[in-house]
Amino acid sequence: MMQFHFKRQTLKCTYENGLNDEGKEVFRSKTYANVNPEADAKSLRQVANALFSLSERALFQVETSQTSEIY
């Protein structure tokens, strides 16, 4: 029977980075590795909010991604 073997989890924070020449919003992202796989959604969002409270940029979206090996 095939199984998943957890390898890593990342947290991706997308933030507003001003306007382009056409006046449309530009977004950038920052990815943080080695995120605890047992962290819940509320805790991850709190961490992202805390990180971006130190920035001049507004946090737009928070995503998490897990990588697993199948064997």
- What percent of the residues sit in helical stretches (DSSP H or I)? 10-25%
**How many distinct folded domains?**
1
Report mean pLDDT, rounded to a whole number.
96
Number of strands: 3
Instruction: Tell me the major beta sheet.
Output: 3 strands, antiparallel
Protein name: DUF1659 domain-containing protein
Pfam family, one: DUF1659
Domain DUF1659: 5-70
InterPro entries: DUF1659 (IPR012454)
Compose a concise summary of this entry.
By secondary structure, the chain is an alpha+beta fold.
What are the defining features of this structure?
71 residues, alpha+beta, three-stranded antiparallel β-sheet, 1 helix, elongated
Would you give an account of this structure?
The protein has about 70 residues and is of the alpha+beta class. The chain has one domain. The chain has one helix spanning about 40-50; strands at about 5-20, 25-30, 60-70. The protein has a three-stranded antiparallel β-sheet, with helices on one face. Strand 1 (about 5-20) and strand 2 (about 25-30) form a beta hairpin. The chain is elongated and about 55 Å long.
Mind sketching the topology for me?
Blueprint lengths: L3 E16 L5 E8 L8 H12 L6 E12 L1
Pfam family, one: DUF1659
InterPro entries: DUF1659
Protein name: DUF1659 domain-containing protein
